[in-house]
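Input for the complex:
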Amino acid sequence: MGLIGAELLSLARKAGAKSIAVVGTGKNVGKTVVVATICDALRAEGTPYGLTSIGRDGEAVDVADALAKPRLLLHPGAVIATARGVLPAAPAAQILDLSALASAAGEIVYAGVRQSAFYEIAGPPTASGIRASVRRLFELDAKFVVLDGAVDRIAALAGEQHAVVVAAGASNSGTPAEAVAEVRALVARLQIPKADPAAPALVIDGALAPSTVAKLIAAGETRQIVVRDPTQVAVRGKAFLALSTHLQLRCERPLVVIAVTVASIGRDRYFEPRAFLEEVASATGLPAFDSYAGKMVAA
Amino acid sequence: MKFEGFFDTATATALRFDWLVDELQPVTDYGRRIFAQLEPFAPGQHARAQEHAQRIATMSAALDASRIDAVREALRSAPDASGAIARASMGDALTDVNFLEIQRFCDVLARTGTLLGEHSPYTLPLCEEVHRTLERGRSAKFGFYLEDRFDSELAAARTHLRDAQAEFENARALLTARIAHSLDRADGGTAEFIIMRDELRGPIPQGVRVIREAPTYYLCELELDEAALQALRRRDDATGRVACLEETVRARLSDVIRTKSAELQEASSVLGAIDVLVAAARFTQRHACTVAQYALGDVFEFTGAHFLPLQSELERQDRTYTPISLKFCGAAVLTGPNMGGKSIGLKTCGFIAACAAFGLPVPATSAKVALFAHIAWLGVGIADDEEGLLSSFAREVVRLRDTLLIKRQPELLLIDEFARTTTPDEGRALLLALIARLRERQICALVATHLSGIASAAGVSHFAVRGLRSMPEGPPDADLHAALAQLAQLMDYTIELVTGDSKNAADAIFLAGLLGMDRPFIESAWQLLGGGEKQKH
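Predicted:
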């Protein structure tokens, strides 16, 4: 275990990133498995690393459907930012710092893992909280930070030295084609390029709503449509792919998407792993990895 | 700071009480809890109010600004350990996060005690036994860990756990490597992994459990062999032993905290009081405040007074603020030109009275003030948030009616151009009737107006703002900021007692010109006024 994690780390470093955020097309698409794979690779190379999440991750059972979830086995050398309410009592962790960042499970605390144990990570729910937590993890001597992300809240990472990995899976789509279209649209949205300051532009303050998009298309808008970061585009899925053929979408703070991972096993369906992996790689133009099958497809 | 009953929201807004509250904000949760409950001293509590203000002034004089900042910086790092202390007092076992909170709280106690030295008017319990006990868990300078030194058996148990974990990982790694080899893979994959049917040469390898089958693959997981299961059993036993010892240490530490919880609770209260006091001392120092003399009766007297919210705003614009002085008993009338500072004169009275009522040093070089039970603002500056169907005059009258229904002595009324929106004759009559009512009720009041002859007709003191020193020169400037700066240069904001009957000067035509009205318009106004007024300046 860890070869795919090592590959993802290598891609992130080539992009000049010191952190990776793993975001998914939905729930149960293998994000935790990818996070664990990256953590194992960091441990294997002896890099002190930090770990946090946007919201909750690593819980033993899914809080939504009470089914078992993959857990995060962490080892000494890891520093985590998690809610005080989910820190295991034993074995004791080293409590490194407190914070005023609130979450549903209590304030966020920073802890160093001293004995190998399963941890649940419930990080800050806001973009500003995430930014503060990631900064603090680096101050606490992490050399690399792994973030279990949520697509809508990775705005905190835009324009900085963070890489994004997109996880896609069978859990949220009825057919492989649907899943491929979903991940293609998400990757395209997250990869909205940086605005050209020399070209004419219409700057959108806040979210780019579907109603605004419809008006702009109807008006035959040809200028760059500039949002602050890709998460400000409130048009998803196939609708996003359609709109991007009509409008020149640009952003002030782009994200760096480096790879896609797939989980062909869903809770109640599965896809043919090899075909799914290849189609995702082809549709997104990114390196694609299947942690379960131990396979990868280059871009 | 609670002001219900002392003044209403409209008066608080007019006097910029929000600004004062911001200036006095403590930095700890302990301080904020006390601060939220502060109430004005009641009439009759002169000695307590004076003692409170003196305590603040003494600290302000004893500590220089950098020391005050250092104390606040130390206080700012105090986590809110109240919940942990309360839980421990009830015999609950605390968590490691709680221990760090209490340790940092004790650090702040020690640091604050050192910084304040003998200048703290309160005895700050340092909770040394708790501090000493938790010191053994200090880790990486600012952190806390249930270190091995807390229990002689802990170190051995943890070593045993590490060994057992390593043994289990090795056993598992051997299995994983064997399976990876048999499947011709570079590594063992994840906890759950896929074997493609068409890549499988022979049967499913031993040690692999199939958990789901699909037409093209098997979803599998590792099946531990006997050696790995034994190692896992030993690892789990070791984990249990460490957990048990750690809980014992936590219970012991919690017990120390429980026995000292009263001292910790007292320390948190004192720390909060110090936080509130230091914030007030900082306010006193920054604004050169002095302790007011608390007077009985309706006397109101101050020199060199500042309405601080306006002063800070002016200073941000590199403009200077002119302090004012005033002395009156009972009711008095204040007249003066437009933009001459009548409203600010009234607000200064209210601001100083409010500071004194909360036992704070006041922003003046000297002050003598009653401990008012109620302050009310009437007139300009009241937000039109209610009574939408009423005219401005009607709103004013309704507010006056309601204010006069409140009978809490001593009372301070600040009346800014009452009845300005009706005819001058009727406005004058209403104003005189109001002053007569104020005198009858022995209400301390300052009444600002543009109407002439009010003070002499009402038989009360008359104060006036001196007004423009000279006529503005040059053409009207379209730049409002420059016009205001020029006006500030030309205006003499001094308030003086006026003896005899004098006609009020509004300087309104000069000001209209200065603020950009065109020359023909201004000339026309002068002519309509009678021409002679222009030369007066």
